[in-house]
UniProtKB/TrEMBL annotation:
One of its GO terms (molecular function) is guanyl-nucleotide exchange factor activity. InterPro entries: dDENN_dom (IPR005112), DENN_Domain_GEFs (IPR051696), Tripartite_DENN (IPR037516). SMART domains: dDENN. This is MTMRD protein. One of its GO terms (cellular component) is cytoplasmic vesicle. One of its GO terms (biological process) is regulation of Rab protein signal transduction. It comes from the Eukaryota. It comes from Oreocharis arfaki. Residues 1-76 form the UDENN domain. Transmembrane segments: none annotated.
Length: 188
């Protein structure tokens, strides 16, 4: 699963490399409005006649991509790093399948680590019920809930959580790296 995602991540990084140099921030307040210069992007990459890329850039998914990833100050991720810093590596690996596979596996490992930041935490699996377990007649009814005790537990939890720092990890926002300009990519 992660390797397939890594292949697509690498493909889109190659396809959209240099897109940040064709973004123009029109308005910042109240919400950022960003314009993407499609003609400049296609022209500088020598892909004006490429029907596939033209259709991709005209699609709603790409418009959403620009509005989501266009702001210059936001949380960065693996895609941003690929587009900004790995362009030369991706170019150098063209035509060398073992290197491409190695890079895909590295990306897959990074995707896995991003989704499982604490690998040492073990999750207990719930065992499957045995055959015929649904036919048992000695199933006890669900116990009645003591409303007073529930309120006490809620109050205790609220009292503890007010003094404690938040348990969730906040994403750090940073300036998105622009990467090399589009003019450095000439595609065939």
């Amino acid at each position: 699963d992660k390797e397939v995602r890594a292949i697509f991540l690498r493909l889109f990084a190659q396809l959209f490399q240099g897109y940040r140099s064709c973004l123009q921030l029109i308005r910042i307040h109240a919400e950022p409005v960003i314009h993407f210069h499609k003609a400049a992007f296609l022209g500088q990459r020598g892909l004006i006649e490429n029907d596939f890329l033209t259709k991709v850039l005209n699609g709603m998914a790409f418009a959403g991509f620009v509005s989501e990833r266009g702001p210059p100050f936001r949380t960065c991720d693996l895609f941003d790093e690929l587009v900004a810093f790995e362009v030369e590596r991706i170019k150098a690996e063209e035509g060398n399948p073992p290197k491409i596979i190695k890079h895909v596996r590295e990306l897959a490992e990074q995707l896995f680590k991003n989704e499982n930041p604490n690998p040492h935490i073990a999750f207990q699996k719930v065992p499957r019920p045995t055959e015929g377990s649904h036919l048992r007649v000695h199933i006890l009814p669900f116990p009645r809930i003591n409303e007073g005790r529930v309120q006490e537990l809620l109050q205790e939890g609220l009292a503890r959580s007010q003094g404690a720092p938040p348990a969730t990890r906040g994403d750090k926002k940073c300036v998105v790296p622009a990467g090399p300009p589009v003019g450095t990519f000439i595609c065939s």
